[in-house]
Amino acid sequence: MSGLLLLGLLIILGGAYLFTNGVEWIGKRLRLSQGVVGSVLAGVGTAMPETMVPVMAIFFGDGESREAVGIGAILGAPFMLTCLALPLLGLGVLFFSSMGKRTTAIPLNVPLVRIDLGFFLISYGIALLMALLPLGGSGRWIHYAAAATLIVLYLFYLRRLLIKEGSVGEDLEPLILSRGLNRNRDHPPTALILTQVALGFGLVISGAHFFVDGMQRLSQTIGVPPLILSLIITPIATELPECFNSLIWIARRKDTLAVANITGAMVFQSTFPVSVGLIGTPWQLDRFGLTSAGLAILTAFMLYGIILFGSRWRPIHLIGCMVFYLTYILYVFG
User: Fold this and answer.
1) Which residues of 27-49 are buried (b: 16+ CB within 10 A; e: fewer)?
2) Residue 285, number of CB atoms within 10 A of its CB
3) 218-265, pLDDT tens digit by residue?
4) CA-based, 20 to 30 A from 254: which of 11, 71, 247, 313?
5) What are the structural domains, with CATH classification, of the chain?
6) Residues 121-149: pLDDT tens digits?
7) d(Cα 272, Cα 78) in Å, to the nearest integer?
């Protein structure tokens, strides 16, 4: 079990390093802003491992626990991103500043973060509302309509981001796969960039697979129920790509990319995977599911409020969000 966990961790770390380097070069080649690169290219790309868990569980899984596994994975991702990934980002700022690699200030692209958090609060609020409303026989059609609304919201979100112009900057590290090609270090071929991104993405998915497998074996040993496994343990593994990507960018003082990678993934996770749950399951959440969704929304609302009233995020603001995660763990296992 420990061998699988360590192997998965190392593969994810190597894949995230390749992916972040490659996706920056894609952004430069397409003349996209750092916010778009972080929120869309990196955010959606690294969200794929945890997105495939509910899809496979709900539509291709076997057994009575498939819906519990699927719903748990859907709810676990936003909860982990808000209450664990963002706090780790704050800890990363303090760690790298203590090593002299950066300062403790977190310069934000405020308009971008407001867009990300605003869309997350709306879309995940719809998801929570669908679980709370006492729907009768027409409930399925209302769920289908809500699922379609979430997809449209995400498309509108993409449109809002992609109309922004700008460049990711010229201070990029050489493409990793081109470091042995001196002539192409400054202008690597597009095919080589795409190859590196695909390779990094494949390693991230493979590493997440090994990590989840190790986690599942561990959970069977300690006797964790399927819903709790899917809601807490599985997202810890599948959110590692976002965490590693953001920590890499924090170390390089590219805070816009680091923050947008997480907040962009939050928007994606509150739309497409939730739509899968609304279409493929009754979307009836128990107290654990409702609590995790409520805490994710509360955390995002607090962080949104900080920047809405003109303040800047500080490491303590992000680290403080971990209180909700620890409280939830005590609630579940207490």
Assistant:
1) bbeeebbbbbbbbbbbbbbbbbb
2) 22
3) 666 766 666 676 677 667 766 776 788 789 889 988 898 889 889 988
4) 11
5) 34-164+224-333 (1.20.1420.30)
6) 999 999 999 999 877 666 789 999 999 99
7) 12
Neighbours of 180 (CB within 10 A): 8
Check: CB of residue 119 under 8 Å from CB of residue 157: yes
- Kindly report the pTM of this predicted structure: 0.80
Percentage helix, strand, coil, to 5, in the chain? 80, 0, 20
What are all long-range contacts of 159-163, with beta carbons under 8 Å and residues at least 24 apart? 160/115, 161/35, 161/36, 161/39, 161/40, 161/112, 161/115, 162/32, 162/36, 162/40
Structure tokens at 299: 């955390």
Q: Can you tell me the distance from the alpha carbon of 51 to that of 63, in angstroms, rounded to the nearest whole number? A: 20
Q: At what angle do helices 272-280 and 139-162 cross, to 10 degrees?
A: 170
Whether the CB-CB separation of 28 and 191 falls below 8 Å is answered with no
- Are the beta carbons of 39 and 194 closer than 8 angstroms? no
CB 120 within 8 A of CB 47: no
Q: Mind listing the pLDDT tens digit for each residue in 264-290?
A: 889 999 999 999 999 988 898 889 999
At a CB cut-off of 8 Å and minimum separation 6, what does 314 contact? 90, 104, 106
29, 186 in Cβ contact below 8 A? no
Q: What is the per-residue DSSP string for 190-224?
A: HHHHHHHHHHHHHHHHHHHHHHHHHHHHHHHHHT-
Question: Which positions ≥6 away from 11 have C-beta within 8 Å?
Answer: 203, 204, 206, 207, 210
